[in-house]
Amino acid sequence: MRVLCAMSGGVDSSVTAALLKDAGYGVIGAMMRFWPDDKRTDTFDSCCSPDAAYEARRVAEQVGVPFYLLDYREQFQRHIVGPFLDEYARGRTPNPCVNCNTKVKFDELVRKARMLGCQYVATGHYVKRVESARGEVEFHRGDDPRKDQTYFLWGTPRDALPFILFPVGELEKPRVREIAAERGLLTASKPESQNICFVPGRVQDYVAEQLPQAQGFIREIKTGEVVGEHLGTQFYTLGQKKGLGLYQSHRVRHVVHLDPVTNTVWVGDYEDCLWTGLRAEGANYLLDLAELPRELEVQVRYRTRSVRATVLHADQHGFELRFEDPQFAVAPGQSAVLYAGPRLLGGGLIADHVRELPALPAAAPRPRSGVPAL
Asked: Residue limits of the tRNA-specific 2-thiouridylase MnmA-like C-terminal domain (predicted)?
């Protein structure tokens, strides 16, 4: 059986290739090229970079498998970078890694694997591939709770599940590094990538360079009072409390709502940022919709725990949930990922949180002089 192994130049995908070779698969190593010819300084340096491609090729030589560099620059710009900026312009907070896995890695790569005569695609994600009693393939949380990456894979096409392998999904990260060290793989001690690959430095600075700035008001959610000024809703995210530059800087305020239409940032107390539910769009389900449980768990950010919720409505386009307990800063643009225990059921993009906002005052007061620096 032939398998196309996605190699990023990191330790997880390096060990993935080695384990597949040990298991007797005919392994083809491949890396997707995303960086443009005019690659900016400090972008694509930790992953998906020319240096990472060199390291991935070297690891493929160590493991004894062929290696190819696949050109996906156009798809990356169209599916990842463009929508990333569009979402910020809409006052939303995107997660480009979800889009990358959904629309590039597990769509384009599966298609390429079939062209190369491979039966499977494999990656270094910490996800478990489980076959149910009915013989259907399910994705479950990885055994290392600190590294579980099912959150990023909710958009995987359901018909692609049987053709995807996750060899490190049942391992913990320290063991993966041990395997790499035992084999003398040059990526054994390579640090992990933490940043968005195409963003140099801070996301806020990158967005400021790419999107036009426009002065607007920061308003108090309960009264409509103008309490500050800003240069664009794209520089804020729900729950944010630092860097707001409010007139009364001693008062702790959180961003509660972003309205790019009126170019208004709404702020309030912590309690004003607690939501009772959410509405999601662009849904993808990894089971028949009729089998979606009414009571399930949902995870609304990668670094947060899943919480219990009730499905109020679900169809092929989206769903609406009510949380068992109110949740803080449910941000439109992020993913709402559905689980039944460890099993990944699917997900959608958060379109809105469930909460009514007060109407804007009839006449907005003039802003005070001076605009806070970003």
From this structure: 276-350
